[in-house]
């Protein structure tokens, strides 16, 4: 039996206290680290409420009270579920100086001619030109679009002018896309002896949906006969601000050797609507209207 004198008892208690401190130190350090951890900020969201307000910030999660966002101006906020109209996850690449640039809603075409960018599956748009020409396009898949339309005045005359315009596109590299398509136009009605006109084409686009150029080559068809020379097109668009872009579409037609048509204009954009204000010009028009013939259209996008 060991006799515990006061010196030995004090030494034993000191050793026991040291062991307890060593054992608790990692736990305390771990607890402190856990308390100092910050939320992992991965997704930036835009939340639109039913009263038209728009909030942008990092998504922190959801709870019974609503969606939690960490915003730059107001810090952490909670948006009640019953006030939310829409939510969208933002691609960080579309942020410019802190402002969100929505995806170009009208990257698949210039004024009338196509680019090699396509509608996504389930997306659609309606285009009206001069308040007379109506066209509709729908994405059958991410690579195939079907389109068509009609002219308003002829619709009520009993001999409506209509057209169809299928297009297929595919990527070649990160910045290069190619596509093929056709435009076919005809007149419906009794006693119409006309097999229609149209063009089959191939296109190559370079750039992004915000800034790109497209070269096109096609062969025309008129009432049963194909053209011997190709139609050539060179078009482009560039986005100069969040809501404004520039657009041009230029044609070389195989008429009397070749006949050129150029265009230049401004495109005004929102997330679902674009309006083009442009001018069409060539050598003949320039003598009558130096700035060119006005061109107006608008496009409304549906779907995603």
Task: Explain how this protein is built.
This protein has 304 residues and is mainly β. Helices cover 14% and strands 51% of the residues. The protein has 3 helices and 21 strands. The strands form 3 sheets. Strands 8, 9, 10, 11, 12, 13, 14, 15, 16, 17, 18, 19, 20 and 21 form a 14-stranded antiparallel beta sheet that branches. The chain starts with 5 loop residues before the first helix and ends with a strand.
Category by helix and strand content: mainly beta
CATH T-level fold name of the largest domain: Porin
Largest sheet: 14 strands, antiparallel
The name of the CATH architecture of the largest domain is Beta Barrel
Level-1 CATH class name of the largest domain: Mainly Beta
| Tertiary shape | elongated
Average pLDDT value? Answer: 85
Q: How large a portion of the residues is in β-strands, by DSSP E?
A: over 45%
- Terminal-residue CA separation: 85 Å
Secondary structure layout:
Blueprint: H1 6-36, E1 44-49, E2 54-63, E3 66-71, E4 75-79, E5 84-90, E6 95-96, E7 99-100, E8 124-129, E9 133-139, E10 144-151, H2 152-157, E11 161-164, E12 167-171, E13 176-187, E14 197-207, E15 211-222, E16 225-226, E17 231-239, E18 244-253, E19 259-269, E20 273-281, H3 283-288, E21 293-302
Antiparallel strand pairs: 1-2, 1-5, 2-3, 3-4, 6-7, 8-9, 8-21, 9-10, 10-11, 10-12, 11-13, 12-13, 13-14, 14-15, 15-16, 15-17, 17-18, 18-19, 19-20, 20-21
């Amino acid at each position: 039996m060991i006799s515990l004198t006061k010196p030995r008892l004090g030494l034993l208690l000191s050793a026991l206290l040291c062991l307890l401190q060593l054992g608790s130190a990692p736990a305390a350090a771990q607890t402190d680290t856990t308390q100092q951890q910050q939320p992992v900020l991965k997704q930036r969201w835009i939340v639109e409420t039913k009263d038209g307000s728009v909030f942008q910030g990092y998504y922190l999660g959801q709870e019974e009270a609503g969606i939690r966002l960490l915003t730059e101006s107001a810090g952490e906020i909670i948006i009640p579920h019953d006030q939310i109209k829409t939510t969208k996850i933002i691609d960080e690449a579309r942020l410019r100086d802190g402002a969100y640039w929505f995806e170009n809603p009208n990257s698949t075409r210039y004024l009338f001619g196509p680019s090699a960018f396509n509608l996504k599956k389930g997306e659609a748009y309606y285009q009206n030109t001069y308040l007379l020409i109506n066209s509709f396009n729908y994405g059958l898949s991410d690579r195939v679009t079907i389109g068509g339309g009609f002219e308003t005045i002829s619709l009520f005359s009993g001999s409506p002018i209509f057209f169809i315009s299928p297009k297929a596109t595919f990527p070649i590299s990160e910045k290069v896309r190619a596509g093929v398509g056709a435009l076919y136009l005809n007149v419906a009605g009794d006693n119409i002896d006309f097999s229609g006109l149209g063009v089959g084409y191939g296109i190559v686009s370079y750039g992004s949906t915000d800034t790109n150029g497209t070269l096109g080559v096609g062969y025309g068809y008129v009432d049963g006969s194909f053209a011997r020379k190709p139609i050539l097109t060179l078009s482009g668009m560039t986005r100069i601000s969040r809501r404004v872009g520039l657009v041009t579409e230029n044609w070389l037609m195989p008429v009397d050797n070749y006949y050129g048509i150029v265009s230049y204009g401004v495109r005004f954009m929102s997330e679902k609507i674009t309006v083009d204000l442009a001018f069409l010009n060539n050598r003949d028009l320039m003598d009558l209207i130096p700035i060119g013939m006005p061109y107006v259209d608008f496009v409304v996008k549906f779907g995603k």
